[in-house]
Q: What sequence folds into this?
């Protein structure tokens, strides 16, 4: 791809990997700092950034840290200064970051974390997986929190979700996660990169993030970034503030896409790579006279529970297709609330289900 | 002579630094933290850098450092202060960025962050309070606890065959090409306080010279954790800590 294209705003169609799109989009959306540690299958994010050398153009800092623990804490430091900071990793590395993520939620700091999931548990495999759904949308670290989670299903969405994730993170002063799987990170597709927007100046940050630790001028009191509140009443107040943000996210930020769902008798619910595979299975079903449809959650938290509940009134059953042992299916069942049967089909350990398998699961588990 | 004449500015020999807040410190009487806090506040005043200084507080007794020194602060997870400082200094190179860490924070749980920040030569200041014990959690063994020293997790004394050896991390850091100034100080005497202040000031000045990381270790007492009077704690430190952690500059380039 043309390296010189990184700062112009033309609607140029490029071909690149999802991981590379993350790097390009980060520079273009005014990211101030990337801090990361190599891990397959997402290493191209930092490799691309190092090749593009954005510190010579936008001034963005890119630093290879000594660990994922250090990476996320560098993100904490940068975010505490009101900077647009990000990291990326894959499942085992994201586990190491959980301490820092929990602290960032507690300290009410915005950032973007990209998780290009691989199979686990443990060292697992470098093959793609969706096994970190629970970790992303239910918390992951200690304390009452969840992450605003975007699930891209294409290289284009990897690029589009970078600026979106930063905007949402700063809107809610909360970490946002882009939860991709190894396929979305590794596959090459056409992509139009987001328009270039400059990094904010310190004065703009002072105005937009009055809490930022940029140095205390004489005309304001000190800013302290901390997740510590020893008194129970104070800690409860912080928790309630965070929970209120989740309610606002549920109200304002639900995103999803449907495919042939309007007249569907049977609905597949799937995100990321599984949604791509399931779309093909829907087409196979329609060819065989089965009115199947697809709902693809784009935000995993906030989960599109209202539309799923609504569709539960018009379909005969739903099936959740995942590259894990059945995680999102629990949220689908909560949304459906017993109105229709909700089945599950998944593959584990880095195996991607084929359209045939999804179609067979739809027929055998739901239609019988 | 009237009171007003006595308190006139030309008679002023000692006052609370402007950057030190009007808050009672939670530190135990005899603890070294209060003195070191004051020295940092004095230096911030004298260098007139209150608006350009960002501190990183540790987990440990100094977790509330932000309650005492009136600058912008970030409170780090245990041991992670050098990682935060790295990012802040890289993004804001014209600010003075320092971490304030204890021995458990810096030399146990944060060893990797400490060594790698120093090895990258981050232009930050690390103030390292070494009192050989975990004060805040109730006096457990620290990486710098001396052999045979009694703590709540070494009630029969630190046995090297069981608990390993005291980690002299400052000597390690002095070996790294990324550090420019590594010094070990104390604040139990007037001369010590003066030397420590000079060292901290030099470290702050270094951070604008693009020379690398400056580390000021302050060998300190924890009379509450050591279960000694402040006076005896000072004496014990001189007799036991100083031979293991000798005072002076380890590196100054």
A:
């Amino acid at each position: 791809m043309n390296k010189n294209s990184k700062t112009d705003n033309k609607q140029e169609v490029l071909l690149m990997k999802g991981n590379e799109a993350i790097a390009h989009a980060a520079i273009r959306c005014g990211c101030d700092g990337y801090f990361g540690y190599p891990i397959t299958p997402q290493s191209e994010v930092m490799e691309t950034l190092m090749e593009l050398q954005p510190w010579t153009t936008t001034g963005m800092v890119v630093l290879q840290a000594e660990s994922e623990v250090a990476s996320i804490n560098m993100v904490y430091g940068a975010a505490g200064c009101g900077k647009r900071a990000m990291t990326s990793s894959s499942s085992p590395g994201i586990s190491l970051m959980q301490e820092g993520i929990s602290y960032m939620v507690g300290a009410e700091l915005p950032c973007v974390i990209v998780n290009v999931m691989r199979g686990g548990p443990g060292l697992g495999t470098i093959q793609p997986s969706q096994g970190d759904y629970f970790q992303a949308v239910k918390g992951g670290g200690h304390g009452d929190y969840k992450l605003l989670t975007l699930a891209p299903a294409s290289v284009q969405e990897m690029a589009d979700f970078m600026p979106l994730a930063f905007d949402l993170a700063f809107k809610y002063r909360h970490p946002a996660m882009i939860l991709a799987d190894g396929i979305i990170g590794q596959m090459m597709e056409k992509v139009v990169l987001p328009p270039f927007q400059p990094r904010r100046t310190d004065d703009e940050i002072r105005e937009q993030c009055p809490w930022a630790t940029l140095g205390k001028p004489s005309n304001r009191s000190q800013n302290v970034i901390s997740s510590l509140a020893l008194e129970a009443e104070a800690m409860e107040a912080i928790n309630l503030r965070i929970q209120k943000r989740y309610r606002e996210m549920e109200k304002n930020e639900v995103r999803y896409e449907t495919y042939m769902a309007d007249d569907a008798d049977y609905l597949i619910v799937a995100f990321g790579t599984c949604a791509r595979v399931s779309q093909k299975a829907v087409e196979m079903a329609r060819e065989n006279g089965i009115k199947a449809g697809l709902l693809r959650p784009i935000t995993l938290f906030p989960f599109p529970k209202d539309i799923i509940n609504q569709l539960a009134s018009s379909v005969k059953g739903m099936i959740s297709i995942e590259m894990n042992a059945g995680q999102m299916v629990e949220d689908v069942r909560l949304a459906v609330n017993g109105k229709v049967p909700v089945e599950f089909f998944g593959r584990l350990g880095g195996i991607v289900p084929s359209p045939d398998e999804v179609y067979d699961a739809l027929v055998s588990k739901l239609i019988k | 002579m009237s009171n007003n004449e006595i308190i006139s500015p030309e008679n002023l020999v000692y006052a609370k630094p402007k950057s030190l807040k009007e808050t009672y410190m939670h530190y135990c009487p005899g603890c070294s933290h209060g003195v070191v806090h004051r020295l940092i506040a004095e230096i911030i005043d004298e260098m007139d850098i209150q608006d350009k200084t960002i501190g990183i507080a540790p987990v440990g007794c100094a977790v509330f450092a932000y309650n005492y020194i009136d600058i912008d602060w970030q409170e780090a997870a245990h041991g992670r202060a050098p990682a935060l400082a790295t990012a802040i200094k890289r993004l804001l190179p014209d600010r003075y960025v320092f971490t304030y860490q204890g021995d458990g924070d810096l030399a146990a749980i944060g060893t990797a962050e400490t060594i790698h920040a120093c090895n990258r030569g981050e232009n930050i200041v690390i103030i390292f309070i070494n009192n050989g014990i975990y004060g805040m959690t109730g006096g457990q063994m620290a990486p710098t606890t001396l052999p045979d020293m009694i703590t709540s997790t070494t009630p029969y004394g630190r046995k090297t065959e069981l608990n390993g050896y005291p980690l002299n991390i400052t000597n390690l850091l002095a070996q790294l090409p990324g550090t420019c100034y590594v010094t070990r100080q104390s604040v139990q005497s007037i001369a010590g306080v003066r030397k420590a202040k000079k060292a901290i000031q030099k470290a702050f000045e270094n951070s604008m010279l693009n020379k690398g990381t400056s580390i000021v270790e302050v060998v300190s007492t924890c009379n509450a954790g050591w279960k000694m009077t402040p006076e005896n704690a000072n004496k014990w430190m001189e007799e036991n800590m100083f031979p293991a952690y000798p005072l002076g500059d380890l590196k100054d380039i």
About this structure: Chain A touches chain B at residues 32-33, 35, 61, 63, 65-67, 69-71, 73-78, 80-81, 83, 85, 99-100, 103, 107, 202, 213-218, 222-228 (CB under 8 Å). Residues 232-252 of chain A form the longest helix (21 residues). The first strand of chain A starts at residue 13 and ends at 17. The CA atoms of residues 325 and 346 of chain A lie 6 Å apart.
